[in-house]
Design brief:
Layout lengths: L1 H28 L3 H14 L6 H26 L3 H14 L6 H27 L2 H14 L6 H19 L6 H17 L8
Helix pairs in contact: 1-2, 1-3, 2-3, 3-4, 4-5, 5-6, 5-7, 6-7, 7-8
């Protein structure tokens, strides 16, 4: 009777350990190391010699480490330290591609850097009176993100359009292409300006 009871007990224990292992496995695949770590501890308390415990513990610790780095990156983004955050996110993506929303965060940061670069180029061109470059740089930024809400950029882009129109039409001779280009810039300028009787 004792032997049968022990065998039955072992079968039940093995079934429980297999179930817990499966739960931990699913949680790790879903990128949830905290609840997985709790299950790992339950497995250890039931049977510290469980054959898959060492491998499961290692994977859980790795994911906990990556989660800590991810949270550090998110905090850096909140503090506007985007360069540091990007480096950490790239490290995570290199070590474990496709984890959480890391790739989207990287893409978002890289996009914001590109927009900032275009705006910086536009600002420099505005100071130099290079209206064509002003238009090109700011329009490139708006192509990436049409919802940019930068009042100075929009004012300078509008002035860029108007100055470009004036410089094109100040020539002694204008080609049809020049006139068409000036008209297109005028349309773009109008689309940026609140319409009113005074404006008309």
């Amino acid at each position: 009777l004792n032997k049968k009871f022990t065998v039955k007990q072992l079968e039940m224990e093995n079934a429980q350990l297999t179930s817990l292992y499966s739960q931990a496995e699913q949680l790790l695949l879903a990128g949830q190391p905290q609840p997985a770590a709790e299950i790992v501890e339950r497995i250890r308390s039931i049977n510290p010699e469980f054959e898959n415990l060492e491998e499961l513990t290692s994977r859980t610790e790795d994911l906990l480490r990556l989660e800590s780095k991810y949270m550090t990156a998110r905090n850096l983004i909140a503090e506007n330290k985007n360069n540091e955050a990007l480096n950490i996110l790239i490290e995570i993506e290199t070590e474990q591609p496709g984890l959480w929303d890391v790739s989207q965060q990287i893409a978002s940061l890289e996009t914001s850097f590109q927009i900032a670069k275009y705006i910086e180029e536009g600002n420099a061109a505005f100071q130099a009176g290079n209206w064509e470059q002003v238009i090109s740089a700011y329009e490139n930024a708006l192509k990436i993100d049409p919802e940019i809400n930068d009042r100075i950029m929009k004012e300078q882009l509008l002035k860029g359009y108007l100055n470009k129109i004036i410089s094109m039409l100040d020539k002694e001779k204008n080609s049809i292409e020049d006139i068409e280009n000036a008209e297109e810039y005028y349309r773009r300028a109008v689309s940026m300006t609140p319409q009113s009787k005074a404006f008309a």
